[in-house]
Design a protein that fits this description.
With 191 residues, the chain is mainly beta. The protein has two helices and eight strands. A hairpin with a 4-residue loop joins strand 2 and strand 3. The radius of gyration is 19 Å and the shape is elongated.
Length: 191
């Protein structure tokens, strides 16, 4: 299920957007800790967002990964992200090697702002794979990942932002659904 071509495309898109962000004057205002504490009711500290993915063809992938987080301090945030992926591979040489999978699970993460738009990120993820190969009965397996890395937030208006993550899976094994480095792009509102 590893796809090196899509990760290079994501890397190209991420680099383009990062370069664009360097030339566009960010609209970020400095966060004052005193203002944060005075205005800091529970609702105002929540942020929402996530990512999605779509690939169609002989390999079909549909991914939904919403997230919800809580700003503990102006620089430190915690969050949850449920995930659902549908994967289907149609073999060119016949249906004997066709594969379909439903993947679900979630992760918990922590982010710490190092600079205005740059943050460190750690995440623990558990995914369950319900896989069917060549019409045989489905079988279930579980995979856990522990990610470390960093990201970049680019304001896109008001209190919304686009984020880029570059992560390393410390639990990389041959069964891993990821290739290191793991690149993600998503959106947040309220961050």
């Amino acid at each position: 299920m590893k796809n090196r071509t899509s990760s290079s495309s994501l890397l190209s898109a991420m680099l383009f957007t990062l370069l664009l962000g360097l030339f566009v004057n960010p609209l970020n205002a400095q966060v004052n800790t005193e203002d944060f504490n005075q205005k800091g009711n529970f609702r105002s500290r929540l942020f929402f967002g996530g990512g999605f993915g779509l690939q169609v063809g002989s390999v079909t992938l549909i991914e939904l990964s919403p997230l919800v987080g809580y700003k503990v301090t102006p620089k430190f945030a915690l969050g949850l992200s449920p995930t659902y992926k549908y994967y289907k591979y149609n073999d060119y040489y016949g249906s004997s090697n066709d594969l379909s999978a439903n993947v679900w699970g979630g992760s918990i993460f922590a982010r710490y702002s190092i600079f205005q738009n740059v943050f460190a990120h750690v995440e623990y993820e558990t995914l369950y794979y319900n896989t069917q190969l060549s019409g045989n009965p489905y079988y279930l397996r579980q995979y856990n990942s522990f990610f470390v890395g960093g990201g970049y937030n680019q304001q896109i208006g008001g209190n919304s932002a686009m984020y880029f993550l570059l992560l390393w899976n410390l639990n990389d094994t041959p069964e891993s659904p990821y290739i290191n480095p793991v690149i993600r792009i998503g959106f947040t509102i309220g961050m």
